[in-house]
Prior knowledge:
By secondary structure, this protein is an alpha/beta fold. It has helices spanning 13-22, 35-47, 62-75, 94-113, 138-146, 149-152, 166-189, 206-212, 217-226, 235-246, 264-269, and strands at residues 4-9, 27-32, 51-56, 77-83, 116-125, 194-200, 257-260. It has a seven-stranded parallel sheet with strand order 3-2-1-4-5-6-7, sandwiched between helices.
Amino acid sequence: MSQEVVVVIGAGGIGMAIARRQGFGKHILLADFNEKLLESAAKELEVASYKVSMLKVDVSSRASVHALADAAAALGSVVNVIHTAGVSPNMVPPDRVLAVDLYGSAVVFEEFERVIAPGGAGLIVSSMAGYMSAGLPAEQEHDLAFAPADELLAKPFLGPDAVPNSMVAYIVSKRANHLRVQALAISWGKRAARVNSISPGIVATPLAQHELNSPIGGIYRAMIDASPARRMASPDEIAVAASYLLGPDAGFITGSDLLIDGGVIAAMRAGLLPSPA
Length: 277
């Protein structure tokens, strides 16, 4: 009997929380661009008696993602694909945000569509930022949902003149994630598989701490203070939601996004916070 494989792309706090919840008794293929982080995370899982393989991946490279999908299929039956890798708008320029957070998500799920097992499920860890804009023209939203991944970054509405800064790039990328899973639900459904996304708010991870200590930290603190929850989420809270969407109890859910933000977007829509869009 073929072993079941859970692929987790991104070895940060959320990725590791999901790996621990989804991967016990299965073979985890853990992937990340940061080799030092990847080795440390894989060792942590191994010490806790998980079965783990690791592979460096650059999600902005189709060849790299293709190799990862092949490696996953060689290990066994790919039952879950969880894509958590991404970059912060405070870390990189707009073109890199688009390459990783928009194109990277699209190419991951194009490549894994060919190896996902019947009954399997995929999940994009997106962001509440996808709810921070009023939306794009219908033609552009259709392109974000359905255009082949390798055509996306050539679209004029994603060019430097249209995407002036990294925050706009981030918001557009996360909106694209939501639209993309709707389109993927159709093609993945032909393989009897499902795909969804979740949109966390501020989660207590090293990346969030970096942001809180950065020049834009005040914005993050204002979001926390204005939200009904008045706190950050723990990675385990995100993993619980991910586990539900990846599991059999969510068998009727595909092409959907689950907002897990403690009410930040609600506060924005109530006028308690300005939108960064």
